[in-house]
């Protein structure tokens, strides 16, 4: 990177931090818990959202903002579950930015409890951009391998929660849950770790209970 | 993106294209086939290289350049197979650039047949950077889902070969091989598609034969 590139990047990040802070303030004033979901493509973010939509039915109101390079596919999957969803297509950019969220926000109902933001599938770039979330959740799916935290450290050091996803595939894979967990916790000792499968339901009750509790904390201060 | 950002990006890409063209010229003069491997984290690039190392033993000489954000892990795995390997750690950047390859190249033996370059695990950013390769190979692993080509189009439109990897996991997953293949071919009709598993060996003979043939073409012109 040249000096000029560094200055341009600093400008972008400063603008992003200001937009993110405004979004966080606005959402928390309304008692809404915002969650930024981060992972590689195909780690199971949308399938997790579909499973959460079913589990939250009657318990909490949710909305979803989807980020993708192209296509409306993920928003369509979430809407099919009866959840309001907005699709942002970045047209090439490898991550969402706070300003993109800010543009959609006026359309999002104000009486929801949770706003999930599914980032572009990418374990690198999204880690550098605060979207105004309260919780950053990174998914690492068992087929990806247990060696990923140290290879892609920023996603893990900046997250609040780690979901070891697609746990149902463990019998067919060499993934070592304890190794992945230990490596992620070595990078970030504050990580809350859940082993989950949206298909078998493993770990989903614990994760839902955690989210409801985190939302109660926000609401009690709103 | 502001106008200033666009100009900076154009400068970077122009510099990269020149460096890539020089690398391609140099390698092809030596009769070396360079292959740029692209995929999400955990799609099986390193495991594929380990399997290729075994299959090429006695048939062809190979070397590997590994790209990662952090750690020397992938280069160590490849070296354990008796293959010379260099690790580039980008320290945060989400893709390799031709200049990084150019720096390593003087150390790479000149009497090899294949130079594999394993890019940073990322289905977005690496697609924009020519590394001087002759063949760009994108891996899409079955656990990632058959809906990925249209969601991450550039990786598929710029590739020469698509490997549908981890084919051995098909019995446990809803991945539709024909759907993924059709969607990728709709984006890029020139793609050569192989269904492979480095674990079961499925499709590996065909892929190895294809590589040996492509290398013969380069060598006959060198």
Written overview of the protein:
The structure is a homodimer. Chain A is an alpha/beta fold and about 220 residues long. In chain A, about 40% of the residues lie in helices and about 20% in strands. The first copy, chain A, has helices spanning about 5-30, 45-55, 75-80, 100-105, 150, 155, 175-185, 205-220, and strands at about 35-40, 60-70, 85-90, 115-120, 135-140, 160-165, 190-195. The first copy, chain A, has a seven-stranded parallel beta sheet with strand order 3-2-4-1-5-6-7, with helices on both faces. The model of chain A has no long low-confidence stretch (mean pLDDT about 95).
Considering the chains and any ligands shown, give keywords for the structure.
222 residues; 18% strand; seven-stranded parallel sheet; alpha/beta; 7 strands; homodimer
What value does the average pLDDT of chain A take?
95
Strand ordering within the main sheet of chain A = 3-2-4-1-5-6-7
Largest sheet of chain A: 7 strands, parallel
Q: Which chains share the greatest interface?
A: A-B, 36 and 35 residues
Q: Give the fraction of residues assigned to helices of chain A.
A: 40-55%
Q: What does the radius of gyration of chain A come to?
A: 17 Å
For this entry, what is the oligomeric state of its chains? homodimer
Bin the strand percentage of chain A.
15-25%
**Class computed from helices, strands and strand pairing of chain A:** alpha/beta
Distance, first to last CA of chain A: 43 Å
Unreliable residue runs of chain A? none
- The tally of helices of chain A reads 8
Shape of chain A: globular
Strand and helix order of chain A: HEHEHEHEEHHEHEH
Give the number of DSSP strands of chain A.
Answer: 7
